[in-house]
Amino acid sequence: MSVSMPHIGALPAGARNSITDVPGVAVGQCTLADGACQTGVTVVLPHGGNLFTDKVPAAATVLNGFGKSVGLVQVEELGVLETPIALSNTFAVGALSQAQIRQAIAANPEIGRAWPTVNPLVFECNDGYLNDIQAMAVQQAHYAQACAAASVDFAQGAVGAGRGMSSFGLKGGIGSASRHVGGYHVGVLVQANFGTLPSFTVAGARLGGLLAERLRAHTQAPAESGPEKGSIIMILATDAPLDARQLRRLSLRAGAGLARTGSVFGHGSGDIALAFSTAYTVPQQAGAPMPALAMLHETRLDTLFHAAADSVEQAILHALWQAETVRGRDGHQRVALRELMPELPQWLLRTAPTN
């Protein structure tokens, strides 16, 4: 895409303005786009090693629990991740859980025997408006393809798990952003599938009314109305040395960035944030030494909280701006933001406050 979105906030972005600015993190995707099948898989790998034997600290916040995720209970209890993070549609959760279990067993044959079982971690959003979700097209092989494609460079918008997503009555998808503060990175990846068009807000400007008028003219149909529903999954990564308690506090601040875009975490919306740190790993084996390092002091968390909010807001905007218009099941269509308002980047630059 030739025109990028203006920077949100005052904190500097990382080199890629992506979750992969956090050292060691990679993202892989598999996209299924064929007629009524508009879905896919996105995976986030915290590091390139064996996640079961070398876990990373993590914690989650459930802002609104209208969702069907797998693995959150153990993350809350133990405060670690032991598989990659998988994102897809609601009915793909079972297939991806099995794929993660099989992947972990292949690397660690004693799982479930001499060793404990593995905790798969799968998040979902309902893409049933554009995708024939009843076809259950996502299979274990698609998870493997996404993992094999993992890289520091990846596409955003209507790709991977974002292929069938809708946001604010427009085309949603996968978005990412990062901020670099205090010598550390905070990177975010979102699966955006939430919001009502009248409330859509960009960098503090309420654009929902204008976009609703343009959408009516574009489609010759009235904009959708009703309460907020859908979901958003927000994955936060950092290289700051934080423990699980601090990571839960960081994950909670994703809600600040989400609210800035116009969301109220509606009754029918599953809004979940998970944060992890790559600063150290926690060994599976009792004989391996535990990490010995000082956690970041509490008084230094504010800059990371700010970075989390800004990165989430920016990542949501990237998800919508990078997406293309998609037509799927039964002729349903979601129009891309850039198709309705191609002048948005220039408009934001003209209206941005001066420091």
Per CATH, the superfamily is L-amino peptidase D-ALA esterase/amidase
Stretches with pLDDT under 50, minimum 5 residues = none
Give a quick account of the main beta sheet: strands, pairing sense, barrel closure: 7 strands, mixed
Alpha plus pi helix count:
9
Can you tell me the CATH architecture? 4-Layer Sandwich
Radius of gyration of CA atoms, rounded to a whole number: 19 Å
- Compute the number of strand runs: 17
Question: How many structural domains in the coordinates?
Answer: 1
Helix coverage percent: 25-40%
Q: N- to C-terminal separation?
A: 28 Å
* Helix and strand element order: EEEHEEHEHEEEEEEHEHHEEHEEHH
What is the CATH T-level topology?
A: L-amino peptidase D-ALA esterase/amidase
Q: Please report the first level of CATH classification, the CATH class.
A: Alpha Beta
Shape: globular
Structural class category: alpha+beta
Strand content: 25-35%
Mean pLDDT over the full residue set: 95
Protein name: D-aminopeptidase
Organism: Cupriavidus basilensis
GO molecular function, one term: aminopeptidase activity
EC number: 3.4.11.19
Which secondary structure elements does this structure contain, and how are they paired or packed?
Layout: E1 26-34, E2 37-45, E3 54-65, H1 72-78, E4 80-81, E5 85-89, H2 93-107, E6 122-125, H3 140-148, E7 166-167, E8 170-171, E9 173-181, E10 184-193, E11 201-202, E12 205-206, H4 208-219, E13 229-238, H5 244-252, H6 254-260, E14 268-277, E15 282-283, H7 301-322, E16 326-327, E17 333-334, H8 337-340, H9 344-351
Parallel strand pairs: 5-6, 13-14
Antiparallel strand pairs: 1-2, 2-5, 3-4, 3-14, 3-15, 7-8, 9-10, 10-13, 11-12, 16-17
Keywords: Aminopeptidase, Hydrolase, Protease
Family: Belongs to the peptidase S58 family.
InterPro entries: ArgJ-like_dom_sf, Peptidase_S58_DmpA
